[in-house]
Specification:
Layout: E1 2-8, H1 13-23, E2 29-36, H2 42-49, E3 53-56, H3 60-69, E4 74-77, H4 86-91, E5 96-100, H5 115-123, E6 128-135, E7 145-152, H6 159-186
Helix pairs in contact: 1-6, 5-6
Bound molecules: 5-O-phosphono-beta-D-ribofuranosylamine.
The site of 5-O-phosphono-beta-D-ribofuranosylamine has 15 residues, from helix 1, strand 5 and helix 6.
Length: 187
């Protein structure tokens, strides 16, 4: 069984997709705990509803202790808006994945989060945007890319409409990637 920790800062719809499609299914991966830097994150409620342990902390040492205590093999950053400390990144090299709502190298790095990403895609009249899952290294959105999926930009798109379509793709691709990692881990 692959032990996961999911780090969130907000709504946690990506977390929900992992709960529904990996944690509660026969795919050999389990969420040991959910961690948030924000005590108001709705994702914490989702965790509690599913009897998953939740923690709120910003303290590095506490985070490392939790990861050790729960024997975590994979950290999933699912809308986690805090930069991970160098210590964690070093210790969990190639064991931390992040989801980003654009096709990296486009529209990523400092400042590119939330609506900003979709606003600029629309401003620049891109024909398509997408989603990237990548390993986390010391930079912001610079780690090795694991998988990407395109999303068409439509004429009638608003930030909200585009964001929702991208989010739907995030939910799919995240489960696909975690399922692959679980398969490799358990083989
Ligand atoms: C997603 O767009 C994710 O890519 C980004 O933050 C958003 C989080 O959404 N980093 P949710 O909290 O999973 O609903």
């Amino acid at each position: 069984m692959l032990n996961m920790a999911v780090f969130i800062s907000g709504n946690g719809s990506n977390l929900q997709s992992i709960i529904d499609n990996v944690h509660k299914t026969n795919i050999k991966g389990t969420i040991k705990f959910i961690l948030s830097n924000n005590s108001n994150a709705f994702g914490l409620v989702r965790g509690k509803r599913n009897n998953i342990k939740t923690y709120v902390t910003r303290d590095d040492e506490t985070i490392i202790n939790l990861l050790k205590e729960h024997k975590v093999d994979l950290i999933v950053l699912a809308g986690y808006l805090k930069i991970l400390s160098k210590n964690i990144v070093k210790e969990y090299k190639e064991q931390i994945i992040n989801i980003h709502p654009s096709l990296i190298p486009k529209y990523c790095g400092k400042g590119f989060f939330g609506n900003r990403v979709h606003e600029i895609v629309l401003q620049n009249k891109e024909a398509y945007t997408g989603v990237t899952i990548h390993f986390v290294d010391e930079g912001i959105d610079t780690g090795n890319i694991i998988k990407q999926k395109k999303v068409m930009v439509l004429k009638e798109d608003t930030v909200e409409k585009l964001k929702n379509r991208v989010l739907k793709t995030e939910h799919e691709i995240l489960v696909e990637v975690i399922t692959d990692i679980c398969k490799k881990y358990n083989s």
